[in-house]
Design a protein that fits this description.
- It contains 13 helices and 19 strands.
- It has 446 residues and is α/β, with parallel strands linked by helices.
Amino acid sequence: MDEEYDVIVLGTGLTECILSGIMSVNGKKVLHMDRNSYYGAESASITPLDDLYKRFGESSPEESMGRGRDWNVDLIPKFLMANGQLVRMLLITQVTRYLDFKVIEGSYVYKGTKIHKVPSTEFEALNSSLMGIFEKRRFKKFLTFISGYDEKDPKTMEGVDPQKTTMKAVFQKFNLDQQVMDFTGHSLALYRTDDYLDQPCIDTINRIKLYSESLARYGKSPYLYPLYGLGELPQGFARLSAIYGGTYMLNKPIEEIVYENGKVIGVRSEGEVARCKQLICDPSYAPDRCQKVGQVVRAICLLDHTIPNTDDTNSCQIIIPQSQVHRKHDIYVCMVSFAHNVASQGKYIAIVNTTVETKNPEAELKPGLDLLGPIKKKFVTVSDLYEPTDRGTESQIFISRSYDATTHFETTCDDIKDIYSRMTGSDFDFGEMERKKNDIFGDAAQ
């Protein structure tokens, strides 16, 4: 380890692995280490099933759960938006050649003690029980306005200023009621709270467009999920880094981050120091440079049936808007199954999660847990959320944010782009990555 690297990366979470891959592609000499013996860090997929039980101090699973090696259980549930930033990163870097995906079969929203399918076609919208007939007409006009809205073309704006008009004012412009605002803001724009209502409308408009564009790609829902679980994603980017000379060391204890005059110069492991110019890590490797900003509670539930009232789908997402259960944050339910090679035949994994608001986090999940029907086994975790206390430009240590309660990777990708810009001094440019692709992968194929 007596070498100098441009970048050392600590932790093999998705954020760290993507940045490791991007830096390697950009010609940087990268050393990537993790104290664990597996990829994924806190976002790993656990296999076999016995390891999940051991992780929570439980005895071995009963025989009815099937073969343990058929299970790959995500610790943190997330889906990919089909037209989102992570899919663009996967396509541009060609990490897709290591992965296979399936479309999530259904997207649902909770309203008035029942779950309703989020309409995926105009026909479904017209027949949806989410809205009355007059509300449907107003909602259709609203969606037509959103799809045609262009910041650069005043003719499409209808007097709506992207930076000054609030989203609440846009809803009022189309006379949409509270129920439709809830459904739109939380199931289409995928906000966790109602704070967005008083903010400039452009972010919400772009989020609804992303949902619509993602939905248009495959029809059933806007979400994709990798076969064999989310743990495949960091491994895919780790392979990318290795192709371009990145060095990986798992099961490597990290003793100390070494500084000189307040700036990182290396990492000490097993008595040796690997030197570097920049360091990327997750919050667990630099707790003194992070602050706690909240908690997320998650319940991993193993089922032998589909979730009731979801049309017997093998996979789905259910969003419970916070206003429907008198909370400040939404509750999310994600379900995947044997159809994704993450459970034994006929078995399902549902994960319920939300941002913690009280001193009894598990009780906060009850509205979501009540939707699942009988649960074979349940594992509950409460995770602290951390973010860095500085931008890292002086110390050259760049720390990722903890994974939040959202069930998609858009906030994770925003963090990746933010770290990239702080490290390089320039914005992450999808177009630039696209331009490099032919030269990069021509070399890699030789």
